[in-house]
């Protein structure tokens, strides 16, 4: 799904006050999902690379790329300690209910051939997870897991947050506001709220201290706010949070590290923004 089509779906959902959720799966989420569904948790995590190579019929998978040795570190950054079946349950629920699922693709400019092979291994693992969970591929809608960056790079994020700056946009989609009320969720939500407010966005709240261990508390806290759109930068926890919020007739986007990247640059303008593929699978 390209950004033009994604924009159509998001604006339609906002105009009709219908639920829409975009979640994205990276290495951490795919590892969590694969626990005892594809690969056994009684085996040291870094040894999963060999099992993934066998599953993918690619004996060279993982050669020349040291990412497999850092998988446990990636999980920790996502707020998960291996193994974690509770996190897996949340992700499976999110998979079943998400409108759109971003997955790693081989469109990763600048990444090594070894890394691209690893991406292909993760794709194979995901499809095996879906098969085991009896989720048919034709029931899923996929996009690139870099969609959160693409939404910004294409200018779509600005259109979503500031539709009144684009003549005819509100009328085309029957948007009932000049700007959507936005709830931010993530450990840097308060900082990002200041950043977006300074750029004329309507931020109604920021929920910080978010992780897999307090998902239900975060969801309950979100009920205190009136909003049309939630931007969620909360690692693996973002997946279930987005799916839960969309079930209430709201739009929820898993924005990954976008908060961090925009805060680091200090720039809201999308012109010249380069997608940091080196930060992701």
UniProtKB/TrEMBL annotation:
Ranges for domain GT-D fold-like: 2-261
Highest taxon of source: Bacteria
Pfam families attached to this UniProt entry: GT-D-like
Name of this chain's protein: GT-D fold-like domain-containing protein
Organism, as annotated: Syntrophomonas wolfei
